[in-house]
UniProtKB/TrEMBL annotation:
Tree of life domain: Bacteria
Name the record gives this protein: Riboflavin biosynthesis RibT protein
Coiled coil location: none
The species this protein was found in: Litchfieldia salsa
Keyword check for Acyltransferase: yes
All residue ranges annotated as the N-acetyltransferase domain in the record: 3-119
The organism's taxonomic lineage, starting at the top: Bacteria, Bacillati, Bacillota, Bacilli, Bacillales
Family annotation (SUPFAM superfamilies): Acyl-CoA N-acyltransferases (Nat) (SSF55729)
Length: 119
C-alpha cells in the first residue's frame, strides 16, 4: 500500500533512499529529504506491506506531468515486484497525470512498463 511520507518516517525514508546510487553521500541525502519536506511540487511515498519496504519520490512538472525522482526497495525484498507495484499504485493515485522517469529512474521504469505489457 502506498502511503504519504510523514516526518516520523524520516529515518526509514532516509535508509531506503540511501540505496539509490545518487543518494550515497549523507549531505546529499539530507538535502534531498529537505526538498521533499519543503517543496510543494515534490512528494514522497512509502510502500507498506507488513513493514515499510519501499519508497518512491515524485516531482510535479510544469506540464502537469509527474516525474519519478527516486525509487528504491529494501534489498531483502527486491525481485518480488514491489517496485512495479509502487509505479502502478502511483499511476492509480494520479490517473490524470502523465508519469515519467528521470535519468536515474528511467531504466527501472522502462522495465516496469515492458513487464506490464507482458502480464
Amino acid at each position: 500500500m502506498l502511503i504519504r511520507y510523514k516526518k516520523n518516517y524520516e529515518k526509514i525514508a532516509m535508509g531506503l533512499l540511501s540505496f539509490m546510487p545518487s543518494e550515497k553521500d549523507l549531505k546529499k541525502l539530507q538535502a534531498t529529504m529537505r526538498q521533499y519536506e519543503m517543496e510543494e511540487d515534490r512528494q514522497l511515498f512509502l510502500w507498506k506491506e507488513e513493514d515499510i519496504i519501499g519508497i518512491i519520490g515524485t516531482q510535479l512538472l510544469e506540464n502537469e506531468g509527474l516525474e519519478i525522482q527516486h525509487i528504491s526497495v529494501n534489498p531483502s525484498h527486491r525481485l518480488q515486484g514491489i517496485g512495479k507495484k509502487m509505479v502502478k499504485a502511483l499511476k492509480e493515485t494520479f490517473p490524470n497525470k502523465a508519469i515519467q522517469p528521470n535519468e536515474y529512474t528511467a531504466a527501472f521504469f522502462d522495465r516496469c512498463d515492458t513487464k506490464e505489457e507482458r502480464d
